[in-house]
Design goal:
With 195 residues, the chain is of the alpha+beta class. The chain has seven helices and six strands; from the N terminus they run ααβββαβαββααα. A six-stranded mixed beta sheet has the order 1-2-3-4-6-5, sandwiched between helices. Helix 1 (3-17) crosses helix 2 (23-31) and helix 2 crosses helix 5 (153-168). The radius of gyration is 16 Å and the shape is globular. GO terms for molecular function: acyltransferase activity, transferring groups other than amino-acyl groups. Residues 1-130 form the N-acetyltransferase domain.
Length: 195
């Protein structure tokens, strides 16, 4: 999958999460897939950030264009398998600014994630490595289908700006969202709860 397709998936995710995403939400969500690992199943796509220097795997984007079909559950199961292979916890935030935050929170809780706190913008969830459970029946059908929506000139411009930023920016630094999540977790979670 090429970089332009990845940025477009990120913009599609932002449009699925927020009813009216801001320029910055679109820009960050276009950029994050360029530095992330992609998982997908049918109409669902998930991007995670993992780095050997970090103790956790971070879900940056997860969405599905078809709800209640089990596609996102299979994508999260693929991410869980990856976490087991890496022996790492999985961390995700859910925006409390989205009209879909209640559904997203219920989805993560149904899939074993525990809410460990909140701030004025997000709910913070973690799935501890030792608590990861995945179905014994593995469905490894991975979709390379590009999940795209119709794009405006503004969104195309954001895609190209994200690609330029990716090539200019040092690729060895963690994204801002990861730094924010990691800082919040270290500050608000007792050390023994996530070591």
């Amino acid at each position: 999958m090429n970089n332009l397709s990845k940025t477009k998936e990120g913009i599609t995710a932002a449009k699925q999460i927020y009813s009216s995403p801001s320029f910055m939400q679109l820009a960050f969500d276009a950029f994050y897939p360029l530095i992330s690992k992609r998982f997908s199943y049918a109409s669902s796509v998930g991007y995670i950030y993992s780095n050997p220097k970090l103790d956790q795997i971070y879900i940056i984007l997860l969405y599905s264009l078809q709800q209640r079909k089990g596609h996102s559950t299979e994508t999260i199961n693929q991410i869980k398998r990856f976490a087991i292979a890496e022996s790492k916890d999985i961390v995700v935030t859910v925006s409390n600014k989205s009209e879909f935050s209640d559904k997203a929170r219920a989805f993560y809780e149904k899939n074993g994630f525990e809410c460990i706190g909140t701030d004025m913008n997000h709910y913070y969830y973690i799935l501890k490595y030792e608590k990861i459970q995945i179905p014994t029946v593995l469905c490894d059908e991975c979709s390379d289908t590009i999940i795209l929506d119709k794009f405006s000139l503004r969104e195309k411009t954001i895609s190209y700006l994200a690609i330029v930023a990716y090539h200019i920016r040092m690729r060895n630094t963690h994204p801002i969202a990861i730094e924010t999540m990691n800082k919040w977790i270290r500050k608000n979670t007792p050390q023994e709860n996530y070591d």
